[in-house]
Amino acid sequence: MNTLTSLQALCEHVSVETANVKVFALRVLGASAEFLDSLEAGKHVALHAADMAGTPHQRLYSITRKRGADRFDIAVRREGHGGVSDQLHATLQAGSSISVQFVAGDISLASVLGCRQVGMLAGGIGITLPIALLRGLAERARRTLAVPDVSLLLCVPTLAEIPFLHELLELELTTSWFSLQVFVTREAVNSNGHLRAGRPHAQDLSRLGDPERVVICGSHGFAQGMREYMLAMFPASRLLIESFTPPAAPAEAPTDTTLRLYLNHNDQILEPAAGKSLLEMLETSGIQVRSLCRAGICGHCRLKVSEGHYTLEPDFCLTDKDKDEGYALACCTFPRSGTIKVDLTPTA
User: Fold this and answer.
1) Where do the domains of the chain lie, and which CATH numbers do they carry?
2) Which residue stretches of the chain have pLDDT < 70?
3) What is the pTM of this model?
4) Where does the FAD-binding FR-type domain lie (predicted)?
């Protein structure tokens, strides 16, 4: 469900998971039965909130737990860049409210049920999707219902930045179907038991066994890198991917050449500065673009580009045929120079 609504959610409780991660327990007010049914752990909810400068934005957060018909949790990491997440950390507290717009996403507990084996790969706060699914599986297991064997490989910068660590360890120690391996990338640790120093290599990824599904959640770079590994190692596996950051702008973006965007639908010409995504350029110029994830997952900002010079960062939804026909995602397209023709209303 991604129909835009205008609902309020009351914050009922705030807990500190790590120094930079808070969990907010929210109760949505006055929602329809359809909206409440769409609140599933693993999906994400769109919040409309301001950043630290007071500029409003729409941002997506994974539903990590559903508590009854109208209550759910989200986990938010403070980024330190003055964005919406930082503002939520600073101002959202028990008794305050926030605007909820819609629920979106295709990954939920149903996505992994019926499988014999499931692999999960998470980077940092990307653990929010796996923890949501694991909680659902644990509840099924408590009711003696069938669950798949699950192997989770979690990558974090430091030990202090591992969200839900106690819960994950308890789950592994008390069940026969779940295993955990944590890779610490920016801190010296002794590689033993659950901990490994550095990033996972091919032999580490082989711990996933022969998964029918692989859940990947992390930054755009993490998700893209792990997708390539999984496609090579497990070509028959179905990949379920979420990314919570937009692709980074190419480092070589020119600053001394003319860049123009020619909009086919109204013959308008824009002259933005290079260095941002096409989506950001259009939005900054007041051009409305249908978008949702901003990370190359959902495909909502699909359009056509031609001529000029631009860089296409990897996405997770367009086929090679789509790209050969000139389709691109605005969030993954970085104009560089020349006159680039942009068709905002291509026929699919």
Assistant:
1) 7-104 (2.40.30.10), 109-243 (3.40.50.80), 259-343 (3.10.20.30)
2) 1-5, 252-256, 347-348
3) 0.89
4) 1-110
